Amino acid sequence: MSRLAVEFEVVIAFCAARILVRQVQGLLVDIGNAIRAWRSVRDALRDEQEEHQG
User: Fold this and answer.
1) How far apart are CA 52 and CA 48, in angstroms?
2) Distances (CA, A) of 48 to 11, 24, 45, 52, 53
């Protein structure tokens, strides 16, 4: 394999790795947002339940 082909494959692999890292970061942000939304709903339901009991 020529040196140019090897360098091209390295560049492609590097770009693919950067894209994968960005996708994982986006997924982690989405998971964090979902957890925050779930906690918000849970807290609202808990507050509503306490109002009816109190």
Assistant:
1) 6
2) 56, 36, 5, 6, 9
Distance (Å) of CA 26 to CA 11, 22, 31 = 23, 6, 9
Angle at 44 between CA 38 and CA 30, to 5 degrees: 20
pLDDT in tens, the chain (54 residues): 799 999 999 999 999 999 999 999 999 999 999 999 999 999 999 999 988 886
